[in-house]
Automatic annotation (TrEMBL), chain B:
It comes from Catenovulum agarivorans DS-2. One of its GO terms (molecular function) is cytochrome-c oxidase activity. One of its GO terms (biological process) is aerobic electron transport chain. This is cytochrome-c oxidase. InterPro entries: Cyt_c/ubiquinol_Oxase_su3, Cyt_c_oxase_su3_dom, Cyt_c_oxidase-like_su3, Cyt_c_oxidase_su3-like_sf, Cyt_c_oxidase_su3_a-hlx.
Length: 538, 294
């Protein structure tokens, strides 16, 4: 089996530089509004995701400010609920998912030797729906009666019987976000399936491409189910249906089944591309080929398939029959096997490698340790009998922030530090980057680690007040939260500096251990790459 | 596949249509969101309806402009075989996403039939649920009396639904023969069979409206008649919307056929319309079995 890492030396440089005169970037705002270029659209996605990350982060700051002390001091409980809800929605649909899609846009065509995404105009449409969708969601906060306040999971009857006037706006904004995601995923899947350069066979694909292929499949499979869920919420609230109302023969628990049939694959949508990123960065800075490439692919496929069979582990306390609880418990624990394969492979890749600790590697190492930690708390939550204690406590909040912040977000930051020199053509301020890393690493643990303690002690999620005995840890958590939020401004400053080309110009191959087609093109990457496909031999 | 095709892939230049489409989606979402909320609150449609209408006009303009560009490019030979493969794969995945959309509503139907209604009736270990909540409630399907006492009548499979099933199955055959005609360059067969499919689609939609009138007027079966009416109208309603879209799609194809578009080896749009039509047909067969017969 030839992994992608062996292909790079044998590429015959095609005429990819000569075609740039075709149509370079247009001038002014039209470039961004009308663009069909995967790099432009990738940049748009990444900037949009970053802005949303800061907006959602600001909401988290409101939450943490309120929770700094027991009692109610800064915001009304109803506004607090809106903050937890919109924070979740923005981080999931506005930050993490678009950031990964941005990376897919930028990197997949360059990694597989394609001239662009397969459907470039639809690519533009996929992106530009998002700012509009989030404009609606954010504007709904100012509707009379406030924005969505039922949690990002919008459980019925909170979202049906007890929700405000803005619910219809929420439903339609989720609809158009879903349309955007589905079109984005179709584009990724078709690009990978149909646009690979000659000789780029399946088992030479970089793992980032593999993981995105599977992610795109998950997206196409479950985003329509989310559309169905919000549609039923809409008709239940406004048109008198009773899907989630027992009085008409429905069941509020049915909402949870439908939602989590979407929701659980959704959480893998947010982590599989992260696995791809870590599988790219760890070998580069260990100066070894990735250990167990094929097993990585099959592990990813296994995780994706199992993700369809575990949704009800979010619902252990709803009163399901015991045999159902056991089924979902065992299926969930089974996922730790392919995930364990991945962690093993990353560690085995580093084993006896010539490791150097550049910033992308630092974030990747933090990812491996802290994501694994979040995985372990997930394993605890998977055990049905003990989940009855953990359910709806801060332990759950701690768990999914470890896998999403120190997992997905850290991988995104690692990816940015890995590919930013390729995008901008200059090396970013490494001192600032290391400062960002250490500030983030320390503050994120101050922020999320004590959540385990208060959660196990019984502090509930999504409540603006708490018992006095949780006060000390909550103050520490809030301080960690403010520090983590502020640390991200270092990253913002660093990225702006790099985009303004302040830094040392870099070589085509920025990192000496890096492998893959993206390092064979110039830095910064020309507007059009691989207009004619490169030849890839064994 | 991609390994054998080396010709240059057509990457379109800048286009104004996608951003117009995104803006149209924005208007439709804002319009629908405010319209629904306004009707829910005051019973009257407010300014939301105008935003929605403008949004729909914008999206139609976008579709016309975008597809016009697309057709011109295709007919000037800019599209390679590889691009055609992209389009076909894209359409297949789009149809798969539609399948999953319907799966959500079929899931709701199965959940109601197999779990929530029997449990409300006391099945499994839910005797207390029945006794405490609605002790008089009897589990049944179709759910003609809901726990809170709303009553309705069931829509049987005979009559209109069966006729509609036959119509749709025949239309799937006619669209296939239209495709065969196209592939063998028999333009007359193509145009006639396509027209016949469109006519059958329109008859289906007409009968579907008749069936809805019958349900509302004679059976008292309404959208808000409990979970049976909910699943009935949402499943058949979304299916009907897809048939409407498919029929429009076919009408555009027919007009293009009359203008002499499509060749035996370059007819992606026609093929996509045909796939889409087969898809709505298969969804209907599932509907007929699970909503009407069983």
């Amino acid at each position: 089996m030839n992994s992608v890492t062996s292909t790079q030396d044998t590429i015959q440089h095609g005429s990819d530089q000569g075609h740039d005169s075709h149509h370079g970037p247009a001038k002014g705002i039209k470039r961004w509004l009308y663009t069909t270029n995967h790099k432009d659209i990738g940049s748009l996605y990444l900037w949009f995701a970053f802005i949303m990350f800061l907006v959602g982060g600001a909401m988290a700051m409101v939450i943490r400010a309120e929770l700094f002390q027991p009692g109610l001091q800064i915001v009304e409980p109803h506004f607090f609920n809106q903050m937890t809800t919109v924070h979740g929605l923005i981080m999931v649909f506005g930050a993490v998912m678009p950031a990964f899609t941005g990376l897919a846009n930028w990197m997949i065509p360059m990694m597989i030797g394609a001239p662009d995404m397969a459907l470039p105009r639809m690519n533009n449409l996929s992106f530009w729906i998002l700012p509009f969708a989030f404009l609606i969601l954010l504007a709904s906060l100012f509707v009379e009666g406030g924005g969505p306040a039922f949690g990002w999971t919008f459980y019925a009857p909170l979202s049906t019987t007890y929700s405000g006037d803005s619910t219809a706006l929420f439903v339609f904004s989720v609809h158009i976000m879903g349309i955007s995601s589905i079109m984005g995923a179709i584009n990724v899947i078709v690009t990978i399936w149909n646009m690979r350069a000659p000789g780029m066979t399946w088992f030479k694909l970089p793992l980032f491409v593999w993981t995105w292929l599977i992610t795109a499949f998950l997206l196409i499979a479950v985003m329509p189910v989310l559309a169905g869920a919000v549609t039923m919420v809409l008709t239940d609230k406004y048109f008198g249906t009773s899907f989630f109302d027992a009085a008409g023969g429905g069941d509020p628990v049915m909402f949870q089944h439908i939602f989590w049939f979407f929701g659980h694959p959704e959480v893998y949508i947010m982590i599989l591309p992260a696995f791809g990123i870590i599988s790219t960065i760890v070998p580069a800075f260990s100066r070894k080929k990735l250990f167990g490439y094929t097993s990585m692919v099959y592990a990813t496929v296994s995780i994706a398939l199992l993700s369809f069979l575990v949704w009800a582990h979010h619902m252990f306390t709803t009163g399901m029959p015991v045999y159902a609880e056991l089924f979902f418990m065992y299926c969930t624990m089974l996922i730790s096997v392919p995930t364990g394969v991945k962690v093993f492979n990353w560690v085995a890749t580093m084993w006896r490698g010539a490791i150097s600790y550049e910033v992308p590697m630092l974030f990747s190492l933090a990812f491996i340790v802290l994501f694994t930690f979040g995985g372990f708390s997930g394993l605890m939550l998977a055990i049905t009998p003990v989940d009855f204690q953990y359910h709806d406590t801060y332990f759950v909040v701690a768990h999914f922030h470890y896998v999403l912040v120190t997992g997905a977000i850290f991988s995104l930051i690692a990816a940015a530090y890995y590919w930013l020199p390729k995008w901008t053509g200059v090396m970013y301020d490494v001192g600032l980057a290391k400062l960002h890393f250490w500030c983030s690493l320390i503050s994120v643990n101050v922020l999320f680690f004590p959540m385990h303690f208060v959660g196990l002690a019984g502090m509930p999620r999504r409540i603006p007040d708490y018992s006095i005995q949780f006060a000390d840890w909550n103050q520490i958590i809030s301080l960690g939260g403010f520090a983590f939020g502020l640390s991200q401004l270092i990253f913002l400053a660093l990225v702006i500096k790099a985009c303004r080309k302040q830094g040392e110009p870099v070589a085509d191959k920025v990192w000496d251990g890096a492998e893959g087609l993206e390092w064979t093109v110039a830095s910064p990457a020309p507007y059009h790459t691989f207009t004619t496909p490169p030849k890839i031999q064994d | 596949m991609s390994q054998t095709e080396h010709s240059e892939y057509y990457v379109p230049a800048q286009s104004p249509w996608p951003i117009l489409g995104a803006f149209a989606f924005f208007l439709i979402a804002v319009g629908s969101g405010t319209l629904v909320a306004q009707i829910g609150k005051t019973g009257e449609a407010g300014w939301g309806q105008w935003v929605l209408i403008v949004g729909i006009v914008a999206i139609l303009a976008m579709l016309v402009g975008w597809f016009r560009d697309q057709i011109i490019e295709s007919r000037t030979g800019l599209h390679s075989h590889q691009l055609g493969v992209s389009y076909r794969q894209g359409m297949s995945w789009f149809i798969f996403s539609e399948v999953m959309f319907f799966a959500a509503f079929f899931g709701a139907l199965f959940y109601a039939r197999l779990i929530s209604v029997p449990w409300l009736g006391g099945a499994s270990n839910n005797e207390m649920t029945n006794l405490v909540l609605w002790p008089d409630f009897q589990a049944m399907w179709p759910l003609t009396t809901t726990p809170d006492g709303t009553t309705t009548q069931a829509m049987g499979p005979m009559g209109l639904p069966l006729i509609n099933t036959i119509i749709l199955v025949i239309s799937s055959v006619t669209i296939h023969f239209a495709h065969v005609g196209l592939e063998h360059n028999k333009r007359k067969q193509l145009a006639n069979m396509l027209l016949l499919t469109i006519v059958l689609g329109c008859i289906f939609l007409f009968l579907q409206v008749e069936e809805y009138i019958h349900a509302y007027r004679d059976l008292g079966l309404k959208l808000d008649s409990g979970v049976y009416g909910n699943t009935f109208f949402l499943l058949t309603g979304f299916h009907g919307m897809h048939v409407t879209l498919g029929t429009l799609f076919l009408i555009v194809m027919w007009l293009r056929v009359l203008k002499g578009h499509f060749t035996p080896d370059n007819h992606f749009a026609f093929q996509a319309a045909s796939w889409y039509w087969h898809f709505v047909d298969v969804v209907w067969l599932c509907l007929f079995v699970f909503v009407y017969v069983l």
